[in-house]
Amino acid sequence: MKRLANTMREMIAQEGPITVERYMSLCVRHYYATRDPLGAAGDFTTAPEISQMFGELIGLWMLEVWNAMGRPAPCRLVELGPGRGTLMADLLRATRLLPDFKAAASVHLVETSTSLRQRQQAMLAPLGFSVEWHDRLEDVPPGPTLLVANEFFDALPVRQFVATERGWCERLVGLEGECLIFGLRPEPEQALGNPLRLGDVLEWPAASVDLMGSLARRLALDTGAALIVDYGYWGPAFGNTLQAVKKHAPVDPLDEPGEADLTTHVDFQRLAHAASQQNVRLHGMVPQGSFLEILGLGARASALKARATPAQADEIDKALARLTERGPKGMGELFKVIALTHEGLEAVPGLPALSSFS
User: Is 138 left (phi over 0), alpha (psi -120 to 50) or beta?
Assistant: First the structure.
């Protein structure tokens, strides 16, 4: 932490304040390169770590879509930001229902962290699938693709602009003594127009928009589908959603750069609009809880409980409740699901067609 904080202070002292986008990029890169952030001993817990049921249902979703695609072989099974490999491992176990899928699928993990790659390799090696690692989606070989991204887009850096009397001024990270502080660029960003209310914060997810455009182009050209699960909203909206979590508790985003999980809420409307510029179909958006229930989460929980001990059955009930919990802070409602597919795939399980982006 001290190395990154000192590097930032030296950089700002020499070059001047940096954008929130650059600050996030530096922090996130350092954070994932230096730790396993998941689980009770880490900073946050994702849905695959809560229960095997999450990954299993995603695996069944992939099988249904692969069938609808005409069972292409080979097929690239891709995950963006695969964490410990838990989601992919559970997903692959579920795909055993169709033995032909194993012969057709090659697993491709987009992961830059060396330590997490090692965890993923240990998790997936016993399953017998061909696995390759890549730094970028663009490095995955072309071909029919099935992709999943769970809690990936929220960690991509965003620019922030604040409505002032001068117009939309970009939010920056600077120095006050030895402390990192937020400030504003003096000159407004003319391309954003005039703000309606002073103090509004506009987040521009350039990295997410670029990635979504690349993904859509790939699916339009090579066929396939992408399933995206993350916490966020359907814009347009104003507000500062930059947040940091350490040891499962919120902390100041500037206090310990690179030592906390730094994220923003995903604007799914912007993702959908970026994808819609290509020849693809969009499906969703629905809350995670509703999506999992449609896929059969309740039935899967009952099947697992039928051969569980009382203590295990209690844990299954707790996981079921957590994955589907309603309310603004409940995982079942806060997290949303969308999918995009090549034009020939008109329907996917659990998600309605999305025809409007306004």
Answer: alpha
Which candidate, 172, 119, 110, places its Cα nearest to that of 140? 110
**Separation CA 138–CA 132 (nearest Å):** 13
**Residues 126, 218: Cα–Cα separation, whole Å:** 30
Only one residue has tokens 């997410």, namely 208
Phi, psi of 13 (to 5 degrees): -60, -35
Kindly report, residue by residue over 44-64, the tens digit of the pLDDT. Answer: 889 999 999 999 999 999 999
What's the pLDDT at 267? 96
pLDDT of residue 35: 84
196 pLDDT band (50/70/90 cuts)? confident
Give strand pairing partners of 78.
108, 147
In terms of DSSP bridges, do strands 224-233 and 266-267 run parallel, antiparallel, or are they unpaired? parallel
Buried b / exposed e over 164-202, threshold 16 CB at 10 Å, is eeebbbbbbbebeeeebebebbeebeeeeeebeeeebbb
